[in-house]
Design goal:
Layout lengths: L5 E5 L3 H13 L3 E6 L2 H11 L3 E4 L9 H9 L7 E5 L4 H8 L6 E3 L4 H22 L2 E6 L2 E6 L3 E7 L2 E6 L4 E4 L3 H5 L7 E5 L2 E4 L5 E2 L3 E4 L3 E4 L5 H14 L1
Parallel strand pairs: 1-2, 1-3, 3-4, 4-5
Antiparallel strand pairs: 6-7, 8-9, 8-12, 9-10, 11-12, 13-14, 14-15
């Protein structure tokens, strides 16, 4: 699992950065950097898209690691990070706390402590992300399931049921009306396109005045009365992606 994670090292002491990088690589992580300045850190963050960052407070630039941490926290999908620094002054600690890091380690640090801190921080970041994912509770006979709303392609009304078609091709039948199911879904993501259909706008690949297409496999009818609202939803999701 560690090989799936890429860690950005922001450290102006090249020898320390190389030592940390070799250790992280040896235990299975991918490494980006090192970045020795604020500017390099921003550039690598944007180009490498790391899953995690180790940040020294003092950098080879006017701006500090705390400035870089603030840059991270202001992004739409903040990368989790910890400070790894020789700065123990309370002033720096207080400034660091405002950026809400996943940890604050002081040099010199034991390899075991560094690895454990990274593992816990990554675990917490994954758990936090999962909790933020919108989910729909569905009943399948005797079982209740939590379905990630992003996995739903579209909904179709069938008599007294609503059929949910999922991304993996499976289907779930709910003994609820289409309108009732839609009330439980994010209204900025799902929209009713027709009397008997609703679509997850984020999965629409293209559309025309009469149908919304989900790749080559599915097309959903769009009624004339709902056309303007449906197209606006699709375009908004495309801009957000």
């Amino acid at each position: 699992m560690k090989q799936a994670y890429k860690i950005l090292i922001v450290e102006d002491e090249v020898l320390i950065a190389d030592t940390i990088g070799r250790y992280l690589t040896r235990v299975g992580y991918q490494v980006a950097g090192p970045a020795i300045s604020y500017e390099e850190a921003v550039e690598l963050l944007e180009s490498e898209k790391p899953d995690f960052a180790l940040i020294d407070i003092r950098l080879n630039s006017h701006k500090t690691g705390i400035d870089f941490a603030n840059y991270i926290t202001k992004s739409s999908t903040p990368t989790p990070f910890i400070f790894l620094t020789s700065q123990t002054d309370r002033r720096f600690v207080e400034l660091a706390k405002e950026t809400r890091p996943a940890g604050y380690l002081t040099k010199p640090v034991r390899k075991e402590s560094l690895l454990t801190t990274i593992e816990i921080a990554l675990h917490n970041a994954v758990e936090d992300a999962l909790q933020k994912v919108p989910r729909l509770t569905v009943s399948t006979g005797r079982k209740n399931l939590q379905v990630n709303t992003s996995s739903i392609l579209y909904l179709e009304a069938t008599h007294v049921y609503t059929k949910l078609l999922l991304h993996d091709g499976s289907e779930i039948l709910q003994r609820k009306s289409l309108g009732a199911v839609l009330k439980s879904l994010p209204n900025d993501q799902f929209i009713q396109t027709h009397r008997g259909y609703a679509v997850n706008c984020q999965h629409v690949s293209h559309w025309d005045t009469e149908r919304a297409y989900l790749g080559k496999a599915h097309s959903i009818p769009i009624s004339r009365s709902r056309r303007k609202e449906v197209i606006a939803c699709i375009e908004e999701r495309l801009l957000a992606s």
